[in-house]
Specification:
globular, 32% helix, alpha+beta, Alpha-D-Glucose-1,6-Bisphosphate, Chain A, domain 4, 7 strands, seven-stranded antiparallel sheet
Amino acid sequence: MKLSTREDIDAPIDDVYQAVTDFDGFERQLLRRGIDITRDETQPMDVPGLCWNARFPWRGRAHDLDAELVEINQGQGYAIESRSGGIVCLGVVDLVALSKSRTRLFVSLDLKPTTLSSRLLVQSLKLTKGSLGRRFKSRVSEFAAGFTA
């Protein structure tokens, strides 16, 4: 199952890149939402191989998630692969300079089940893909709207 959206931001690509690679800021947001997240401190922040481990409550149970920065293109975007409970998710953030002061942000998530129970979960998510897509677009839009150049 794939979710994707794009937003145009009135800011230079370098400024937007700095905002979308502010992993410390994203970690603080997750901690404020009650998600326990730790980063592998042995890896530098801007190279593939950077890893996170997270534990979060969902549907009354604690779930573990392992994420890894698998690709990073300086100034253009990155890809993060995460695994949790039989689901592999590839998150991709791409930036395109539309002009010196305008940038297009592409964000996509691709969920792939690896077990029978995760296939059932993804299938049930597909039934609500419309509302999930709207919530996903809303979150990306909030990020873009809150961006100050």
